[in-house]
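Researcher: Let's try something more involved. This one mixes different molecule types, so please make sure each is placed in the same coordinate frame as the others.
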Amino acid sequence: MAKFVPANTAQILKKYDFTFQKKFGQNFLTDTGILEKIVDESEVGADDCVLEIGPGMGTMTQYLAERAGKVIAVEIDKKLIPILHDILADYDNVEIINEDILKLDIDELCDRYNNGRPLKVVANLPYYITTPIIMGLFESHVPLKSITILVQKEVAERMQQGPGSKDYGALSLAVQYYAKPEIVAHVPPECFIPRPNVGSAVIKLVRYDKPPVDTKDEKYMFKLIRASFNQRRKTLANGLANAGIGIKREDVTEALGKMGLSETIRGEALTLEQFAMLGNILAPNNDIGDKNE
Ligand code: SAM
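Model: All components are placed in one shared frame. Result:
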């Protein structure tokens, strides 16, 4: 099966009279080495069903289709759909779906195409919605083995950060609760057409069988985390008390005391384990778990 040469992307798109849409975060990969690196790192094999988010014109989809049992490619831009059908015509294991990934029931896709067994997500993500895509995949508890994605370099770094870094935040904690993150490649703007204004990185998130911390109520813990980082300049006690989620300042102070932490500590200084502990102490004493759904 002949693959089209990624370096010929511009000529091929010209033939189809395709114009890039900035609003969809369209930066197509043209570097064969990076495409192979992403697919190698995803460790996709014949037993795997892959969800590719934003296949573009199908460059990486071809590489995935050669190795995977099945590829589900979800593309929002309807102008790309006929191009995808043309380019991927030789592969009978690719399903092309014209949808917005954020509106799609991925659990249903997983049931339909993989009998509910865990998927592997592999993608060169549209940068404007990287965080909602990742958070959506994790928080919805879609069965997943791993996520191997190309994202903005700063976002990849944020996923790996711990307390003490200015980039540490709700995304770092969410990713580290569900998966082990590892940056496996840096990708310069020259590897794309059109070139993005920022550097990029490939990050691999391998899902834990069991989260690394014990929490009585995961949703509640993430509410605390989000509220803490929304007001990261305030002390944790003030930030949570002002967040409008039904927490009293004195309850936070008391909980921090029990944990051996200063009452003036900021949320950005807490580890995932400490957020889990704080959530476990505070959860039974109030009802924020239901107020902010
Ligand atoms: N995978 C291709 C590649 O590597 O050359 C294209 C990657 S490009 C960075 C992101 C792709 O995601 C574009 O094709 C874009 O149209 C698509 N996209 C943007 N928003 C989307 C959404 N909400 N749902 C599905 N696809 C989306």
